[in-house]
Design goal:
Length: 324
């Protein structure tokens, strides 16, 4: 007589799974503000409202705003002159609002105030006659926007410690540095150390350029990665701060995977695991975090535990056009 069929995965599914949930995670104040700007613009002006570049790097958010009447474009010349346009949270070169004004367009700047702070620092450093060494990732919208704040030839991009060794400047040159706001805290510290070692005269920004949300989310991952068999990072593949969270975990020896939605999780990833961590980049909404946790609960009996490393209370004001 044949033995009854037994599902080899059944026992695995019954095993409890501890799910550590990072706090803080997900939306930061700059992202909250940017999304609200688009939503309020739609209420005030009606659809369509154009948005230059993705307002934030998250497909779920972009699709949600598109459903409400937002139209996303890459360049300003794709926007009709009589239509309102919003500039993304990553910031834009000075030439973009200048062109909008030339065309007498209605435009709203959703640039994160912490990115705008870096823009103002760049202007002041140029006024002092300093050449800026800008630490960031080539091609990222924030980098394009920041480098577009100063005249061409007055700012040089530095991506790695190796780039520092190749710089053509001397210790007689007046130099300063700034950084992209969404970088790895540890990687950036290494590059800054290399810059200061080679150019002792270099002028540092008055305050840390890496934003509080990026630093806090990386610190939360560091606090829990050692207790996780796997870390799931919810975020887009073009989201700098989300990619850095994966890197932070991997640097600590923890397997980490970047996912955009719960549907991307392979249940085989959980085989033999006792603890999974969950966090989200600054552009990922909380609904996607809950979606991932609910998905895990379909396969395993889960024990949710929140790992709190700090509390965020930052709020940014909306543009005056939307509050008057």
């Amino acid at each position: 007589m044949n033995a009854p069929f037994q599902d080899p995965a059944a026992g695995q599914r019954k095993l409890p799974l501890t799910v550590l949930i990072a706090a803080p995670r997900g939306f930061c104040a700059g992202v909250d503000r940017a999304i609200e700007i688009v939503e309020r613009a739609l209420e005030r002006y009606g659809a369509p409202v154009y948005v230059r570049h993705e307002i934030v790097h998250n497909r779920f958010v972009v699709d949600g705003l598109r459903a409400k009447g937002a139209i996303f474009v890459e360049e300003l010349d794709e926007v009709p002159a009589d239509a309102p346009v919003v500039f993304s949270a990553h910031g834009v070169p000075k030439s973009v609002p200048a062109e909008a004004e030339r065309r007498e367009m209605i435009y709203l700047d959703a640039t994160c105030p912490l990115v705008s702070k870096v823009h103002r620092q760049a202007e002041r450093q140029i006024e002092k006659g300093q050449h800026i060494l800008f630490i960031g990732h080539d091609g990222h919208p924030e980098v394009i926007g920041t480098m577009g704040q100063v005249p061409e030839g007055h700012i040089t991009l530095v991506e790695t410690v190796e780039d520092v060794a190749r710089l053509p400047f001397t210790q007689d040159d007046e130099l300063s540095f700034l950084t992209q706001t969404t970088l790895s805290v540890d990687d950036t510290a290494e590059i800054v150390a290399a810059l200061m070692a080679r150019y002792p005269q270099i002028v540092a920004p008055k305050a840390e350029d890496i934003c509080y949300a990026t630093s806090n989310r990386q610190a939360a991952v560091k606090a829990m990665a050692g207790s996780c068999d796997l870390l799931l990072v919810i975020g887009a593949p073009n989201s700098s701060n989300s990619l850095r969270l994966v890197e932070v975990a991997e640097r600590m020896g923890t397997d980490a995977r970047l996912i955009q939605r719960a549907s991307e999780i392979d249940p085989a990833w959980l085989d033999g695991l006792g603890t999974v961590g969950v966090t989200a980049g600054a552009s990922a909404p909380e609904v996607l975090v809950r979606e991932v946790i609910d998905r895990l609960a379909e396969w395993r009996a889960i024990d949710e535990q929140t790992v709190v490393t700090t509390e965020e209370k930052m709020v940014f004001k909306l543009p005056r056009q939307l509050t008057e």
